[in-house]
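Progress against Task 2.4 (sequence-to-structure conversion) is shown through the following example record, which the project officer requested during the mid-term review.
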Amino acid sequence: MSGATQAAAPGARLYDRAAELAAVARLSARAAAGSGGVLFVTGSPGEGRTSLLARAAHDFPGTAYRVAAPGHRGPWSAARALFTALAPTPAAGRRALRRARDEGGFGPAVAALVAEAEAEAEPAAALRHGTGAEAALRDGTGAEAARLGAAGRSPAGRPRPVLICVDDLHLWDAHSRAALAATWREAPGTGSRRPSPVGWLVSAARHHRFPGVPGAETVRLGRLTTAGARALLGDLCPAPAPTPPVVDRLLDEAAGHPGVLAAAVRRLSAAQLTGIAPLPRPAVDDAVLAEVYGGLLDRLPSASRRLLATVAVLALAGRTEVGGASAGTHGRGGGAGAFPTGGRGARTSVDPLEGLVADGLLCRRDGVLGFHDAFLGRAALASARPTWPTRPQEAPDTTPRAGNAAAPPVAGAAAPEAAPVAPGAVTSTAPAPDSPTLATAGAAPETVPTATGSASRTALARGAGHRADRLGPSAAVRSLSPLVRGRAQLVRGLAALAGGPVMDAHEALLQAAELLRGRAPVEASDARFLAMEAAWAGGDVAGCLAALDGGEEVPGAERDFAEGLSAALTVRLDEARTTLARVVARDGAADDARLLLRAGSAALVLGDTAAAARVHARALARARAERRTALLPRALEQLAYAELRAGRHSRAERTAREGLRAAEATGQHNVAAHQHAVLALVASVSGDGSAVSEHAGRALATAGPHGLVQAATLAEWALARAELGRGLAAQAAARLVPLVRPGPRGGHFALRMLAVPCFVEAAVAAGRTAEAREAADEYGAWAALGVDGPAPAQLARCRALLSDGEGPGYWFGEAVRRHDGCGNDFERARTLLAYGTWLRRRRRPGAARGPLRDALVTFERAAAGGWAEHARSELRATGGASAGSSADAAAPRELTPQQQRIARLVARGATNQEVADHLSLSPRTVDHHLRGVFARLGIRSRVELPGVVGRWDAEREARVER
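Structure tokens generated for the chain above:
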């Protein structure tokens, strides 16, 4: 099927459709029982959706209607065709449509029309049941409506069952589809209790996404088996019967596709079928594929068609199957060609790429992108081939630049549209390496063959096989111009950037930039910026600098960002501040989401987290307003990270959850890994250990094989912070050591210094003072550069933790003073908690209560539950009442505050040594307190403590609820 409904003989024989017919029989039985229901049928063009609907209408034991898509797609045009088919008269159909639109639903109007048709039907109609179809074109809509079977009522007095067959739903207008979806959700068998004898059988192309209807069944048509295809061929050619070699050739090339097989047979003469005249080589050529897939391709946007053709070129370059599935399987579930998947935002729009994946025209398997339907790749390549510039084999690129401009660009690039393929046209392609046509290497560009046809004919003449996908593609790919190959590499890099190894994306994008240099300077510049983004995600500073070194390729408007980022990476910060500040000021006021994302990134590099969050929020708003589905995950990723850097963890969590859903919906797995890492860090603040483990594990599962050093560093940092919160300082310090050390096996270069304050706190508690002091000294030099707002305050906190005597008092006071001007309340509360803890241990409980109360209130406001509990425990240890009096009431009166703290730490799995490190006690003191805990609680071992502590928490929550 080419996208429009084709006529099918009622009751025609179907092949290999036993499961589909069984599903139709179940729907018919439900309709006959008065419960109705919905059955969706989907398939590729030519796989027989219309034939299945015709057979279902013919076999239905009641009244059946068939409604095809109208010839135009104006608002409510398809609904008008539906009501025209159901109504006894055109006027009644128009009245029903007006009533349905006014009432906001089709269900009652459809039921009324069905009842009216039954009441007005002639008794003689019952005699026609099951004998055939009556078709008519009504109301000028071009819709085919066939009313089959008998009207009236069944012998039991119930309304006769009704089957409404809706064909080609993907061609219906959006208004009609939305109204039908609401009707189906209210239909019996989908949650409604209202009885109805109406069953809906709905077909759509494979790329169409059906609405969510509870209880609806979906069947997917596939390819035929060898036996089924042979039987179909026998029906297509009853006389003269084709000879066995011809049969084998047709079955091989059609690969079980019924529509392709039928189209190929229609092109053959009787002499060709009987072997008197030779068959075309190949028999399934561009003309056959244009007949079957032309309608689908013509309805796609031009950018989507170009991307499909580019993916097909990549498949050809990868020596993968382009012409159909392997012999013997006939393509069930097979795909043509593959390359690493994904896509991320830059000027070269990836919205069409992600849309093709979401619609099912392209598929992802094991991290690679390919075609669900192998023939679709060949058809897409054939449709673009006449306008693709090529060059002679192993000859310089002599194609004029005007010709290169006609090449199908990557989505979003400016280039003329590809000319459509004329029906029946057969295009030739590049010669095989040993083909005689290589003698034409010096021919004029207009005489150069294009991609695979000549090679196919040459190989077939040598007896190399009948299918073009068995040929080596190297000559065909080399015949393409650098412009086409550069754009293909750009798509490959875009794909890997979101769903594959990022350094593979980096290499592909740099190759694209070289191929596009001087031929498409804007796209070459985009490729370099995307290569920088890939290297940044992979933690490769040298790769970032190599990508940014574009020289004359970088347009003037973007040179500030490239030069400023290069200066920042090479620690020329005065120069970086000047240029990146211009980027923030200029692009931060733009209306282009891409420019806003770039300005937000510049603000993050400068350490201005408030500006970064503000600009990224604007970018997100623009992406939503423009419905840029593929860009949304990227905008949400950047905004979540900016909110996290600013210490606004609740906002970061909400944004990251939305970004995770958007990334998973569009298949951007690398973005999803980053969002998991952000959620793990947020959970480490709230004290949810299970959430930290889950999100960090999922982030690391993708980050490892894809080389996402940035996401891996964030995930490991979250795990360490959670361990520190549970009193496992030694374990947290050991996890953080690789993240704060320089070198290829360390953490991400942009996150290394940010994790140092956390490492210093864990290392001091674990007794690794020398390593903590070394890291703090390096952190001090970095903080002096002024690229992170909270850094001076956190440096003072690190010095307080490392000082002796009364030195910590000065440094804690200095840290609190510096925090007041940086705006990160969470880090200020951590400093206050450490300050109050130090005062309590210096036996100054009265002085400690003020900082601890301030820390507790801030943690509670920030939903930092784990840290709030820590502050509350410290406050209780001073003898003061905490803000949560219900928590005090929930604690056993038998235990001292210190014993409660030890009991909670041991219940979380801490050893005596780890508790001692956390509380600055000796292991012997911890053991003494623990024995007292056992005695006062009446338990025998530490194994029983988790249950006791769990009951404390449950009682506290119950009191809060009361």
